[in-house]
Write a structure and sequence with these properties.
The structure is a single chain. With about 210 residues, this protein is of the alpha+beta class. The chain contains 4 helices and 10 strands; from the N terminus they run E-E-E-E-E-H-H-E-E-E-E-H-E-H. The strands form 2 sheets. A 7-stranded antiparallel sheet has the order 3-4-5-9-8-7-6, with helices on both faces. The chain has a 3-stranded antiparallel sheet with strand order 1-2-10. Strand 4 and strand 5 form a beta hairpin.
C-alpha cells in the first residue's frame, strides 16, 4: 500500500506530465528557477525533485561501440556535474545502477537510474554549518532522447539532517534504506510509471 498520494503535474507549460506527491510545492512560485528546470520541494521536509532538460552528453573520445557503456559514461558525467567533479571521487558513493523502463516512452529510449549518497565535505577553515546534512541521498534517473539530442534528468535529493532521521535504520551496504530514502524510491517508481511527453517540440525550444 503506497504511503503517499500523487497528482498529475504539468511541467514546462504542460509539454511534460508526471505524477508528483501532493505534498510537494512548485519552487518557481517562491524563487526564480532556470527555464530548463522544474523544481518541487516537500512542504513537510527537505526532499526535492528536480526535472532538468539538458543537452545530450556525447561519448566524447570514447571508441566504444557498446551503447550501454556510452550511456554509463553519460550517467557518470551528469552525476559529476551535479555534485562537482572534484568532490565526486571523495564524497560520493554510488550504491546501485539499473536500467529503467519509462512506461509511456518507447522501449528503445534508454533510461537508467542510480542511487548514491554524498557526504558533506567540510573545507579547511570552514565552520560547521548549522543544520548541514550528515549526508544527502540521490536518486538520479537519466532518460536519453537521441533524436532530440537531449538528456532528461530526474533527480530526487534527500538530505539527512541529524535528528530528522533514525540513523540505525540506514545501512545501504546491507540494503537498509531508511524511511526517507524508501519514500524517495516510491516517488521515483511513480515517476517512471507516469512520465509522459505531450509536446515533443519542447526539446527544440530549450
Amino acid at each position: 500500500m503506497p504511503r503517499h498520494t500523487f497528482q498529475p503535474t504539468p511541467l514546462f507549460g504542460g509539454a511534460l506530465v508526471v505524477d508528483l506527491p501532493t505534498n510537494f510545492a512548485d519552487v518557481s512560485k517562491l524563487r526564480q528557477v532556470p527555464d530548463n528546470q522544474e523544481v518541487y520541494i516537500d512542504k513537510d521536509g527537505f526532499t526535492s525533485i528536480i526535472v532538468d532538460i539538458t543537452e545530450r552528453v556525447s561519448s566524447g573520445s570514447s571508441s566504444s561501440s557498446d551503447p550501454l557503456e556510452r550511456d554509463a559514461k553519460a550517467l557518470t558525467t551528469h552525476l559529476e556535474e551535479l555534485v562537482g567533479v572534484e568532490d565526486a571521487a571523495e564524497t560520493v558513493q554510488v550504491w546501485n545502477t539499473t536500467e529503467t523502463q519509462i512506461s509511456h516512452l518507447s522501449e528503445d529510449i534508454p533510461a537508467y537510474t542510480l542511487i548514491a549518497t554524498q557526504t558533506h565535505k567540510q573545507r579547511e577553515g570552514e565552520r560547521e554549518k548549522q543544520g548541514a546534512p550528515d549526508f544527502t541521498a540521490l536518486i538520479l534517473t537519466l532518460i536519453r532522447l537521441e533524436k532530440e539530442q537531449t538528456d532528461i534528468l530526474v533527480t530526487i535529493n534527500v538530505p539527512h539532517i541529524k535528528g530528522e532521521y533514525d540513523e540505525e535504520e540506514i545501512d545501504l551496504a546491507m540494503g537498509k534504506q531508511g524511511e526517507l530514502i524508501g519514500d524517495a524510491v516510491e516517488y521515483a517508481a511513480r515517476i517512471w510509471e507516469s512520465f509522459e511527453v505531450r509536446d515533443w517540440g519542447l526539446f527544440a525550444e530549450i
